[in-house]
Specification:
It is built from 16 helices and 16 strands. By secondary structure, it is of the alpha+beta class. It has an eight-stranded mixed beta sheet with strand order 1-5-6-11-10-9-7-8, sandwiched between helices. The chain has a five-stranded mixed beta sheet with strand order 13-12-14-15-16, with helices on both faces. It has a three-stranded antiparallel beta sheet with strand order 2-4-3. β12 (329-333), α13 and β13 form a beta-alpha-beta unit. The longest helix is centred in the N-terminal third of the chain and has 17 residues, at 17-33. The mean pLDDT is 92.
Length: 420
């Protein structure tokens, strides 16, 4: 056994379980591809300052959880803890906002890293699929993204998730609420670190999960009561569009989420079958983030959905995805001449789009058939010297056990027809 192991808080994706993760990623991406979103991929590490500015210096992500390091050249970098700041940085650097009609619609998939206490549903390395719509302030865009995420989850067979929805206001009305909230929080019995947070970003205290803090938040001023007319109308239209689309949601006035850049619409997807780590995804509008990163005003909205947590949600509901077999046809040669002939058959099957595999290593018939069974193939093609002398191969239906000779020259076409 190897002396090396995966780092604590991380996981390896291996067959056959990895097929489920791939299917989840593809299902989340499918509605995005069908709605004008183009794929973007960014580096796994970025400048520390990108996340300090974008995510927020008062957030746990930046102060406690970010993997930061200094290169040999003295550059301070960090493994990306989330996707939005990186994607917006890439879009600004490439001037995508100047190349056509706004919004710029992008989707991405990748690994992210946070130094957290490992537990089920919370890892130090995790996978997300995300979407960003950059450069437009429109309630329909907020609703679109929530609807697409809902569509993705339902296409996977998930039913017992909930959508929490809130508005965080904007630069006009949030400062008034901020002062009222700070005044309330200063009167609570809080630890020194939380008191510092009250002065830097008091809304983050509403996101505190500790029971001793949450108990004291009863009676906190409501942000909803402080919304300006513009934010109130904007939020109401998002709610109406979701309702008209048949997407259920719950209003949650304490929903803040853990990133400083959110404005107006914020939302979270939660699944009650996951225990304390109930959030499977979320997002919101971040109208001022572009300016924070040195770009022009580009009001934007986006979300990220956790692949690993979505898989856990599927398990909690007992949902098994219908996955295509990794192998549809398995070839078993008996002898060197048959080995060359069936290798050619397998190559032609693959070129025709049929998932096919081969008994490598010169196995005998019994051992090769065991491998064929384990592969999940629907059909096995067996050939020996006598078969080839007659110009045929033996085609076996692995489910029924029926076996019959088929001309070698037509076996690829026949298998294609059987599997169509």
């Amino acid at each position: 056994m190897t002396t090396f192991q995966a780092p604590r808080g991380t996981y390896d994706l291996l067959p056959p379980d990895s097929a489920t993760f791939l299917a989840v990623r593809e299902a989340i991406a499918a509605p995005l591809k069908n709605s004008g979103y183009g794929y973007v991929e960014t580096p796994g590490f970025e400048a520390v300052e990108l996340f300090a500015r974008g995510v927020g210096e008062s957030t746990d992500i930046v102060t406690k959880e970010m993997y930061a390091f200094e290169t040999k050249g003295g550059t301070k970098l960090a493994l990306r803890p989330e996707g939005t700041a990186s994607v917006l940085r890439a879009a600004l650097e490439a001037n995508l906002h100047k190349q056509g009609v706004l919004p710029v619609k992008l989707w991405y998939s990748g690994s992210y890293y946070r130094y957290e206490k490992p537990q089920k549903g919370r890892y130090r390395h995790f996978s997300q699929v995300g979407a960003e719509a950059i450069g437009a302030e429109d309630p329909a865009l907020d609703a679109e993204l929530i609807i697409l995420a809902d569509q993705a989850y339902r296409s996977l067979g998930l039913r017992h998730f909930r959508i929490l929805l809130n508005s965080l206001g904007d630069q006009e009305c949030r400062p008034v609420y901020r002062e009222a909230l700070q005044e309330f929080l200063r009167g609570l019995d809080l630890d020194e670190e939380t008191r510092r947070r009250v002065e830097i970003n008091p809304l983050r205290v509403l996101d505190d999960k500790r029971p001793e803090v949450r108990r004291q938040l009863t009676g906190a001023p409501s942000l909803r009561d402080s919304l300006c007319d513009g934010c109130r109308a904007y939020h109401q239209e998002v709610r109406e569009l979701l309702t008209e689309a048949g997407v259920s949601f719950e209003d949650d006035e304490k929903l803040v989420r853990g990133l400083d850049y959110y404005t107006r619409t914020t939302f979270e997807f939660v699944h009650d079958g996951l225990g304390s780590q109930s959030a499977v995804g979320g997002g919101g509008r971040y109208d001022g983030l572009s300016e924070m990163l040195g770009g022009p005003a580009l009001p934007s909205v986006g979300w990220a959905l956790g692949v690993d947590r979505t898989v856990l949600a599927l398990q909690a509901e007992g949902v098994s995805l219908e996955l295509p077999p990794a192998t549809s046809v398995f070839a078993v040669p008996l002898g060197e001449e048959a080995r060359r002939a069936l290798f050619g058959v397998v190559t032609r099957l693959r070129r025709a789009g049929v998932a096919a595999d081969f008994a490598y290593g010169g196995r005998g018939l019994k051992g090769a058939m065991k491998v064929a069974h384990r592969s999940g193939a629907r059909y096995t093609v067996v050939a020996g010297e006598r078969d080839l002398a007659e110009g045929v191969v033996q085609l076996k239906n692995m489910e029924s056990g029926e076996q019959r000779p088929v001309p070698l020259s037509t076996v690829v076409d026949e298998l294609g027809a059987l599997l169509a």
